[in-house]
């Protein structure tokens, strides 16, 4: 199948390699021309404009976006609008908000253009060797590219989750669960680390991966991380996030679902970005006010 | 090797089968005589008193306890005390509190009796087919039974974690992590369930198990549960707990480790045991007091 | 001063009484004509249409809205639009989302109409006897009605918080803090209730109100509630909420502020609305899957 | 009444002044002799040994301890044991764990010595001008000193909560509630601080104290703190704690009471003591492992 691929970053590049391995003909585009050159070296066709991408594909076109969620997706769709014809299909493989995907689906449907929201999990290694894909969209549209999703996914790692938006929704919740699982694992290792016992984290992560209830890919990755740096001394505990955990919590609030573990996983990430906290200052000040407990001086003021 | 096995419940019975399969000679004991009869049918020797168990074993004896944590473990050790000889080894394979294990280790060490605390994970299927074992105790004592631990565990599923207590400590933290991972998964599926999409939970659990970041044994079990009951309609959401999550949190508090996800996983279990809450009554009463917001009448009083 | 008052519910009615007591001339309107009749009996003028309300006031008009937040506020403003003249002032005294207030401020500013967002705290008794008001809006507009705000508020209970939206923003955060304080109090009394001691909640709430660190109006209300129903037996612990707690958390997420206590206060309210939980079913099912722990049957299915 | 007072720290010193003002004759003792000299200057008798303290009092003696909770209380009681006579009364006015108080009550009861556990709230200013006291102990013993408790407390600020231990229990829970209220207030001000509005914290704390639902002594103290340092720039947000919040949570866990707000208030205090977290390192490492997300280098290693 001919596929136009927009966005050749860590995930996109590997997905293209994955597609090439399954004998698809890929035309790759990225604003970063180096990445276009690189993908050409791998056997794809490379172009430097969206127009060139569109024109390089036979009708109906399949256009796969693997770009940062948000306004950029709208911008790329807008730039494609002058060319798009009924029957074309746009796949958004990124981490877009599911409500944006529903909106884009409706916008494109009016033009006869199909839209598929594809949540893609498995990290960069999965993108290369077999991802997990959660697909939302009209059945008749999804069916046209279903074989491609199945090929680039691991066995049983493909699901048509339902109507437009459901793919990104399922992926969003997946990431919320992921936040919670990661924080649970991380808290456990901090308890081990602070304990009276001379714990070998790498060995514990390894044994927990063999036969225990908590065995999981995340535990394998934990093992891998400790095998490189036994106490993670080189890493700062700053936990960035890319939005899906926040969206999961916001969605849970809208749906009235109590999700304390997902909420706290997210809030502890926010907390990790702070050197000092205003809330901590207030509590310290209050303890001083009523109990005369000494406050610590702000570092900035010393 | 000759092994005396005390406690033939769900975990113990399967561990004995596992031992027998590896050609060990097991003498089994349980206060429930039916279980003794059953284990005899499987090829073990069965006895109905601890004295008989002890006498059926060649010196030095290996006595493996797989019984409920708490006073019962002390009681069984006390009942064995008249017989115990220097060189004997007691293995506690249950979920004892690590501080109890350290105390028992010291008590027995004075008699020259070895004590090993063995945290056992993997559930009943793991007990049968290959467990995950975390072993605390003196190296020279552990080495004497190490081959047995390795045989009954899956490959790489055995670890000598360190001194006495460290095995049960590591298992305790494992269970704390398990609570957090389970709650994270559970919250995610509740968001899916309450969403606008017609989610097929079984299909989602299956796809999340193939290539996604959250793939794990717990997700396989989630898939299994949904395959039997697609909406879990037959199950009440009452979450019991057996102590290790609470101990993990208590230990974290002693160590000054912030573990919000483990804490909330535990507190939501407690909450699930309540039909109504006193705290909820207080908040409802306060909203009525200041805002005139109507309260709902207690069901008991209607 | 002449004031047109729209919305004569629990809060609005009391605020009108408060205004009348300070010798303002109030024209009251509500869709519920009984409330209009009632307010006339208290000395206000009463009307049954917004047009009549508008026409009953001298220019420039002061129109005070005390109606449910959301689309209704937009609807009322829309119905007033044909009449509104430059120099008129609309005060929104309800719990509108601050972003809606900023939008309405801008919409009305283009017409030369002033808009003030007034967060009103203190409950129904405060509305009657002296409220706490947090006012956002242009200084020159706020100054025109400032004396009124000061009169209906307790001494020092009035603040011009800043530009449009800041009044409702400050009130929103106030309510977030209120959620947290209420939940903290409620949790404490549940610990007392479940303890081994024969606690007299009314007496404890009373003593905690006299000299202790936690003395507060909420504790006074707690005392009042227990004085009527010593164990709150007649009340169900269902905690409804009206939006500001959720908005505070959503705002905190947007600002990257970790607010675990406000988050959990809200999530426990959501939890209190559930008889059973899907997340609980998932955890119970998982415990059954790996450990053979019995599940409780769903009540619906028994 | 003659009272022997042991411990002349911030709380104890002020309580002695309070007692003197009510015309009690106080014999003061502290290991810090300067404090003994200081209290003599205020009109108390001062002594430098527990024996001298005991001998300076008429039988039956009233011995009031205001010393740090824990082993020191046991040590002081042990040092008093050679002198104690039936009929003497020991009052522990500190923040002892209620279970220790029950144990001490029983130990002393065997000697005919009365024991009263007195939880004291209100901070240092309350100790001086009128505290809030929660008293546990046998009715006939409490009655003997009841007038003293009433005099040093604000009006209605004294309560005999029940049997031995109940005073310290009630105070412990009070402090748990206090943690929650403080954290709620603190989170609210952090949301204000990070908002788009130019919030004047001092003014907000002041208006929230006049007529609002959250008016409270803690809010008065918040106002006081902001009046001295508008942004708390000089204070570091390190939140120490002295044990009662932890005990409240541990007690809640034992009683099966879900107390998420108290739990998180405590855990955020622990978090504030950490510059960096091991759990954060684990999450950052995991994000790097699966997504190639860059980690931040540990400061120590730069």
Automatic annotation (TrEMBL), chains A, B, C, D:
Q: Which residues form the 6-phosphogluconate dehydrogenase C-terminal domain?
A: 167-302
Transmembrane domains' residue ranges: none
By sequence similarity, the record places it as follows:
Belongs to the 6-phosphogluconate dehydrogenase family.
What PANTHER family is this protein classified in? 6-PHOSPHOGLUCONATE DEHYDROGENASE (PTHR11811)
Pathway(s) served: Carbohydrate degradation; pentose phosphate pathway
Q: Which SUPFAM superfamilies match?
A: 6-phosphogluconate dehydrogenase C-terminal domain-like, NAD(P)-binding Rossmann-fold domains
Q: What name does the UniProt record give this protein?
A: Decarboxylating 6-phosphogluconate dehydrogenase
| InterPro entries per the UniProt record, alphabetical | 6-PGluconate_DH-like_C_sf, 6DGDH_YqeC, 6PGD_dom2, 6PGDH_C, 6PGDH_NADP-bd, 6PGdom_BS, NAD(P)-bd_dom_sf, Pgluconate_DH
The alphabetical list of record keywords is: Gluconate utilization, Oxidoreductase
PROSITE patterns, alphabetized: 6PGD (PS00461)
């Amino acid at each position: 199948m001919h596929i136009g691929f927009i966005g050749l970053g860590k995930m996109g590049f590997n997905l293209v390699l994955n597609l090439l391995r399954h004998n698809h003909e890929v035309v790759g585009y990225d604003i970063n021309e180096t990445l276009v050159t690189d993908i050409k070296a791998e056997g794809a066709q490379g172009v430097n404009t969206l127009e060139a991408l569109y024109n390089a594909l036979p009708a109906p076109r399949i256009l796969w976006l693997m770009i940062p969620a948000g306004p950029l997706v709208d911008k790329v769709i807008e730039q494609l609008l002058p060319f798009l014809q009924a029957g074309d299909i746009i796949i958004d493989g990124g981490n877009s908000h599911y409500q944006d995907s529903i909106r884009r689906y409706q916008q494109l449907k009016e033009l006869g253009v199909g839209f598929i929201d594809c949540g893609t999990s498995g990290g960069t290694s999965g993108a290369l060797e077999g991802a997990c894909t959660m697909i939302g969209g009209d059945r008749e549209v999804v069916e046209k590219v279903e074989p491609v999703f199945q090929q680039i996914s691991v066995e049983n790692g493909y699901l048509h989750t339902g109507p437009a938006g459901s793919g990104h929704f399922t992926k969003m919740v997946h990431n919320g669960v992921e936040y919670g699982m990661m924080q649970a694992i991380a808290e456990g290792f901090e308890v081990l680390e602070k304990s009276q016992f001379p714990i070998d984290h790498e060995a514990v992560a390894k044994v927990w991966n063999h036969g225990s209830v908590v065995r999981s890919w995340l535990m394998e990755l934990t093992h891998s991380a400790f095998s490189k740096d036994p106490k993670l001394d080189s890493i700062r505990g700053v936990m960035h996030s890319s939005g899906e955990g926040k969206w999961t919590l916001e969605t849970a609030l809208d749906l009235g679902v109590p999700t304390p573990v997902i909420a706290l996983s997210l809030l502890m990430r926010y907390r990790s970005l702070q050197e000092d906290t205003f809330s901590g200052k207030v509590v310290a000040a209050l303890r001083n006010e009523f109990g005369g407990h000494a406050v610590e001086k702000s570092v900035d003021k010393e």
